[in-house]
Amino acid sequence: METSAIRQRYFDYNATTPVAPEVLEVMLPYLKDSWGNPSSVYAFGHDTAKVIVEARESVAELVGASPGEIVFTSCGTESINTALWSGLKSDPSRRHVLMSAVEHPANLSLATTLEAAGYRVTILPVLQSGLIDLNVVEAAIQPDTALLSIMWANNETGVVMPVEELGSICRRQGILFHCDAVQAVGKVPIDVSAAGVDYLSLSGHKIYAPKGVGALYVREKAPFTPLIAGGGQEGGRRAGTQNVAYIAAIGMAARLSSASFESEARRLAPLRDRLETACMETWGALRNGDAKARVANTANLSFEGLESEALLLLLERAGICASSGSACSTGSIEPSHVLTAMGCSRSRALGSVRISLGRGTLASDIDYILDVLPGIIDRLQGLAPSRS
Ligand code: PLP
């Protein structure tokens, strides 16, 4: 990534990913020459309809679904909203919803909206590891519980939830199951049938497609009500003329992810571990999140006593993009709700940094960050004289 005199090294792939060259290439014809409406009857629109069919097949394949179970949306947030409201509108007598305390704001902030609409929402606590306790989930289910909404992988810590076990609980208890897989897709294998999910949300910009496109898996027999009504597109499930170029993009991104996610995880895990071990051994940094049940690309480390905002600023001056907490809460000095829910002290949470790796991360990038960190940490600890 070359944006200025100093080479930028990007360590924030959980916030967003660059558009892959193959993805850009597949999109461009639909922005230049093949701009017909996919719903039109004449041949000029047929190309665009065809690419949508192919993209639907590719996204379905990535998560083990049938193409007819995939609905294209504008983003992960829209997918999550659609899933939750679909599940709730199907049975008005069920007024209770479960979600975990570590959900992304795209999900968690819906709790307030739902409560205002007369639903009861139970926010389930998590363990220190960031994992959910299955007994807690089971015990929280009430006779009128409609739905459990929980993420597959956490955006801040990378912790992977026990999705299959959660799916079994939901099936046994007769409640619907929505899973936010935005941070899991392209990082771990996903099989919607084995997971027993009714709805699964995904987002293009975490898998090297552009921002502004997402998808929702809806199990064939799961209840569905469109969030955006007013047209027959997407089989009547999401109105609005389809964003053909972006749908082509997420289709190609899904194909690339299917082909490379396993080898990419094998490549990234040792890079992440090298960085993590060095920080833990040299500065006593604490790892936030389970050491085993997690995606390969994410390290969340607390440098207790240091302020992550200051650390990030100095990292940025050294050309390193990283983040603290979720990217959506950047700018806020409140500790991360995820780390707080995991029982981290305020100072541990305020000293945490998320470093997330991706396709562009090289071993030399890890060398670089480990080269610059000692100077930055010395300076923050007041050991090195300030030069500016
Ligand atoms: N869910 C998780 C876990 C995320 O990390 C994000 C984005 O950061 C979203 C949902 C929202 O996705 P989008 O930005 O496509 O709306």
Features:
alpha/beta; three-stranded antiparallel sheet; globular; disordered C terminus; binds pyridoxal-5'-phosphate
Written account of the structure:
With 388 residues, the protein is α/β, with parallel strands linked by helices. It is 41% helix and 13% strand. The protein has helices spanning 21-27, 29-32, 43-63, 76-89, 105-108, 110-116, 134-140, 163-173, 192-195, 233-236, 244-283, 308-317, 337-341, 346-350, 363-380, and strands at 9-10, 70-73, 96-100, 120-124, 145-151, 176-180, 199-203, 214-218, 286-287, 298-302, 320-321, 352-356. The strands form 3 sheets. A 7-stranded mixed sheet has the order 2-8-7-6-5-3-4, with helices on both faces. It has a 3-stranded antiparallel sheet with strand order 9-10-12. Helix 1 (21-27) runs antiparallel to helix 11 (244-283) and helix 11 (244-283) crosses helix 15 (363-380). The radius of gyration is 22 Å and the shape is globular. It starts with 8 loop residues before the first strand and ends in an 8-residue tail after the last helix. Residues 384-388 have low confidence and may be disordered. It binds pyridoxal-5'-phosphate. The site of pyridoxal-5'-phosphate has 13 residues, from helix 4.
